[in-house]
Amino acid sequence: MLKKFYEDIKSFIKEEYKFIIFLVLFSVICFFPVNYYIVIGGGISDISDRVIVEDGYDSKGSFNLSYVSELKGTALSYLLSYVMPHWKRIDMDDYKYTETDDYKAIEFRSELDLKYSNSNAIYYAYKLAGRECNYVDTKVYVISTLEEYDNLLEVGDQLVSVNGKKCHNMDEFQEELGKIDENEVVIGVIRNNKEKDITCHLYQEDDRKVLGVLLQALNTYEASPDVDFNFERNESGPSAGLITTLSIYDQLTKGDLTKGKKIAGTGTIEIDGSIGAIGEVEYKLLGAVDGGADIFLVPAGDNYRDAKKEAKKEKLDIKIIPVKNIEDAINKLKDL
To answer: Is residue 325 assigned to a domain?
Structure first.
């Protein structure tokens, strides 16, 4: 029986070898990776199970993240993006800070951006609600390396010391680097959960000493009552900052900002409380409409103008509200 099966397979290959070769080549070509992300539309997601304040007040309506779906591009998805409605190609280089960035670096920054966004959301929501929120510490991370500088630091390294002296924020690191006359320095880092010392070149740039890497600081706060974040691993980036902050604030305060409505939105929450612009706002607006949202909150300025233009073009039935900062967003929802 096995011999007959073998003979049948052998015969099939001989007769259909051209088709088999074509199929293999077609599959390889279609799934060959290209240097693009493909945006294929989006939707909204209720944030109530992702941002939970201990003993928080309930809302009759809901706050919803407006998101887009991004895939790493292949030859097939790249070609389809020319014919499929609401598919968009984004050059991966647009996500790069420097030429040395790779996909891993982009993903790390995106995850760090979510933590940065959540940190700012805690600070402003608790501050505006008049609730307890205390600064704990600051962590400093390498978010990109620069090709023109020769150093052994890697994206994801957490900087902890300079020549053995512990530093607790960006200013302290810069201050310690400025004291060094030599062109080498030992930087203590945490890499893969292990602390190690890295000997680095120190460069003079204008009036300061630099390591030749880009850094980002992340503040940690201790709040009362507690707030927990339950974002999925694929839910990263900073664009949930506005909705996250509003959700925390609404759970901390009496009343109901939602007024029973389904509110979607997008925008970063910056260290000064301002609402920062985001990319692909048109797709997030379309996702809000598809998800049945009543209101779409959007950063004032270009994002708002682009959203209004898209709403007019597609004849979308949704109220679009521009917001400049988190207080502006709260006041406009109260005035609905």
So the answer is: yes
